[in-house]
Design goal:
Layout (H helix, E strand, L loop, with lengths): L1 H19 L5 E2 L4 E2 L7 H8 L11 H9 L1 E6 L2 E2 L3 E3 L6 E2 L1 H13 L2 E6 L5 H6 L5 E3 L6 H4 L2 E3 L4 E10 L13 E6 L4 H11 L22 E6 L2 H9 L5 E5 H4 L7 E3 L4 E6 L2 E3 L3 H15 L2 H8 L4
Parallel strand pairs: 3-7, 3-8, 11-12, 11-13
Antiparallel strand pairs: 1-2, 4-5, 5-6, 9-16, 10-13, 10-14, 10-15
Helix pairs in contact: 1-2, 1-4
The structure holds glutamic acid.
The site of glutamic acid has 12 residues, from β13.
Length: 307
């Protein structure tokens, strides 16, 4: 039943795509729109196929997006291959951008990107400023209590970037060092856990449920920042000894004078986050599982130069 519905959804997608062919998309720094994408999936499907008509049975919150005519998506703007905004053209690119565009295309609506950080993405979702987050957002049990996440579309790992001059090459070398992390990220907890599991620091005080990067000082400490460029500057200035986050995010900060440590740890499964128990959660899950099953996501991963 689910698959039948999905094939109807995909049929509607194909039809919507053909309606949109040639329209193009003008992208501006924070938003983008396809002014000519005026046909909704509902309009497209009702014209030609009774099977596709099931695609018109949208949940009220999904119908509200269609009526608004714009899907509002929180994305990263400095993560190459995932969500990256060209400074000159303002154009966004990456796997998460393409997935967002495909969801908008399926709905037959324009899309609008809002650049988010680990610190701002959930506030913007909770306030209703955005409909979903497609921003290297790791699925965790704790986060699942507050938001819905789709099946993961990508799995990354956490690692650590250092200045070559520091001589730090492994987790063992990070003992008693200060590490820059983003507030609102999983990074500090992941690194502390990896240090404990490696036997480099004492884990007797560690509790995954109550861990706080601001107060942890056993064998390693953390400085939290609002965004990644600021951590990179702090690393150059020697304010922190290392910069820890997902490898995909670190890539743009890996200059000639810097290196990753040898270890990568703590798999980070990225999912689309939506408002808990919303109709849009169900729709995103159906679309993502369909695109995982039919090879669309594998193809997008390859096209965007990520592994
Ligand atoms: N992916 C990690 C997280 O969700 C790192 C932070 C980020 O995405 O910016 O916590």
């Amino acid at each position: 039943m689910k698959m039948r519905k999905l094939s109807a959804l995909l049929l509607a997608t194909v039809m919507t795509a053909s309606v949109l062919t040639g329209c193009g998309s003008a992208e501006a720094p924070a938003t983008s729109s396809t002014p000519e994408s005026s046909k909704t999936a509902a309009e497209s499907s009702s014209e030609t196929s009774s099977e596709a008509e099931s695609a018109t049975e949208f949940a009220p919150d999904v119908q509200a997006i269609i009526d608004r005519g714009v899907l509002r998506v929180g994305v990263k703007n400095a993560v190459l291959g995932f969500g990256y905004q060209d400074e000159l053209t303002g154009e966004y690119s990456g796997l998460e951008i393409e997935l967002a565009k495909k969801i908008a295309e399926y709905l037959g609506v324009d899309y609008e990107f809002t650049a988010v950080t680990a610190a701002t993405r959930t506030e913007l979702l909770d306030s209703g400023d955005i409909d979903c987050v497609l921003a290297t957002f790791t699925i965790t049990e704790e986060r699942k209590k507050s938001w819905d996440f789709t099946t993961p579309y990508y799995t990354d790992y956490v690692t650590v970037l250092v200045e070559n001059s520091s001589g730090i090459t492994s987790l063992a070398d990070l003992v008693d060092k200060k590490v820059g992390v983003s507030s609102g990220s999983t990074s500090a907890k992941s690194l502390t856990k990896a240090m404990i599991e490696g036997g480099f620091i004492d884990g007797s005080a560690f509790d995954a449920d109550t861990f706080d990067a601001a107060t942890w000082t056993t064998g390693i400490s953390f400085q939290q920042y609002d965004d990644y460029p600021t951590i990179s500057t702090a690393l150059s200035a020697g304010e922190v000894d290392a910069f820890c986050v997902d490898k995909s995010i670190l890539a743009v900060y890996n200059t000639d004078s810097r290196s990753y440590i040898a270890d990568k740890f703590s798999p980070q499964e990225y999912g689309i986050a939506t408002t808990k128990d919303s109709g849009f959660s169900t729709l995103c899950e159906e679309l993502i599982t369909g695109w995982l099953a039919d090879g669309t996501i594998d193809a997008l991963i390859a096209e965007n130069g990520i592994e």
